[in-house]
C-alpha cells in the first residue's frame, strides 16, 4: 500500500515506475513480436492438414513462454542477467555471450520505445483507470507495429481483444462515452472496409488487409468516432510520405506491399494523447 500511495502522490515516482515497468513489458513484447506469427503459422498449417484429411504431427511445445529464449546461432540459453532490458544488450556490446554473434539492435529499441512511451503516457494521464487503459493501448500498438513490419499481418489475437477491452474501459466513460466508443468501433471497421472494396472494384487489386479494418475499429472503441477522421488523415499522410520516399530513394519495388498498420498505430497513439485537442482546434479553425 505504501508504494501505491507513493506513486499516487508523486508524479515523478509514477513516471519512473512506468518507465521501468514499460522496459520489462518491452522485453516481453519482443517475444510476442517474434513468436506470435510463428505460433499462428503453425496453427494454420495444423488446421490445413486436418482439413486435407491428414493427421497433423505435433512438434515441440512452442508458445510465448516455452522454450526459453536462446541464441539462434549457437543455442545458448539466455540467462536472467543477460535479459535485463537495454542494459544487458549494452553490457554484452550487442553480441551473444557464447558465440559473439551480433544481436539485433531492434530488441533494445523496442524495449526503450516501450519504456519511453509508458513514461510519457503516465505523465500525461496521471495515476488512475485511464492510465491502465492507455498503457494497454500503447503496448498493443507497439506489438502490432513491429509484427506488421515483419509479416504484413495484424493478428486477430491482438486486435480483437483490444477492441473489446476498449469498449469495457469506456463503459464508465474512461476515454469517451460508451455510445461514442461503440459507434467508433463500427465506423472504424466500415471506413477502411469501404476503402478496400472501392479500391478493389476500381483496380482489381487489394489495397490493404482485413487486419487494418480491425485495428481502426479497436482505435475507435478506445477513443470514439470523433477521432477517426484524424487517425485516418494522419496515417494516410505519414504512410504516403514514407511510401513515396521508399520508392524514390531506396528503389522499393512498387509491387511489394507496404504495411499500413504501423501508420495507423502511430496515429492512434497521437490521438490517444492529443486527439481531443487537435479535433477541437480543427473544428474551431474550420480547416
Specify the number of helices.
10
Please outline the major beta sheet: none
Secondary-structure element string? HHHHHHHHHH
Average pLDDT works out at 89
Helix proportion range? 55-70%
The overall strand count is 0
State the end-to-end distance. 49 Å
| Fraction in beta strands | under 5%
Q: What does this 3D model show about the protein?
A:
The chain is 69% helix and 0% strand. α9 packs across α10. With 287 residues, it is an all-alpha fold. The mean pLDDT is 89.
Quick tags:
single chain; mainly alpha; 69% helix; 10 helices; 287 residues
Would you kindly provide a brief summary of this structure?
The chain has 287 residues and is mostly helical. It contains ten helices and no strands.
Amino acid at each position: 500500500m505504501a508504494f501505491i500511495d507513493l506513486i499516487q502522490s508523486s508524479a515523478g515516482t509514477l513516471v519512473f515506475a512506468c518507465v521501468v515497468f514499460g522496459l520489462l513489458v518491452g522485453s516481453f513484447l519482443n517475444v510476442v513480436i517474434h513468436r506470435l506469427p510463428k505460433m499462428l503459422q503453425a496453427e494454420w498449417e495444423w488446421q490445413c492438414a486436418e482439413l486435407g484429411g491428414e493427421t497433423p504431427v505435433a512438434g515441440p511445445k512452442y508458445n510465448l513462454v516455452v522454450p526459453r529464449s536462446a541464441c539462434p546461432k549457437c543455442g545458448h540459453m539466455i540467462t536472467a542477467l543477460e535479459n535485463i532490458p537495454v542494459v544487458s544488450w549494452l553490457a554484452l556490446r550487442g553480441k551473444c555471450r557464447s558465440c559473439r554473434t551480433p544481436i539485433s539492435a531492434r530488441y533494445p529499441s523496442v524495449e526503450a520505445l516501450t519504456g519511453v512511451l509508458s513514461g510519457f503516457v503516465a505523465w500525461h494521464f496521471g495515476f488512475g483507470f485511464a492510465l491502465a487503459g492507455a498503457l494497454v493501448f500503447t503496448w498493443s500498438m507497439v506489438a502490432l507495429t513491429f509484427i506488421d513490419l515483419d509479416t504484413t499481418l495484424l493478428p486477430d489475437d491482438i486486435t480483437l481483444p483490444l477492441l473489446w477491452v476498449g469498449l469495457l474501459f469506456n463503459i464508465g466513460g474512461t476515454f469517451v462515452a460508451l455510445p461514442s466508443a461503440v459507434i467508433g468501433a463500427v465506423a472504424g471497421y466500415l471506413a477502411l472496409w469501404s476503402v478496400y472494396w472501392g479500391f478493389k472494384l476500381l483496380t482489381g487489386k487489394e489495397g490493404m488487409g482485413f487486419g487494418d479494418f480491425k485495428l481502426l475499429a479497436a482505435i475507435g472503441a478506445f477513443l470514439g468516432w470523433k477521432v477517426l477522421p484524424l487517425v485516418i488523415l494522419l496515417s494516410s499522410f505519414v504512410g504516403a510520405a514514407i511510401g513515396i520516399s521508399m520508392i524514390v530513394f531506396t528503389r522499393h519495388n512498387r509491387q511489394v506491399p507496404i504495411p499500413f498498420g504501423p501508420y495507423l498505430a502511430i496515429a492512434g497513439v497521437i490521438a490517444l494523447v492529443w486527439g481531443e485537442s487537435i479535433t477541437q482546434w480543427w473544428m474551431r479553425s474550420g480547416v
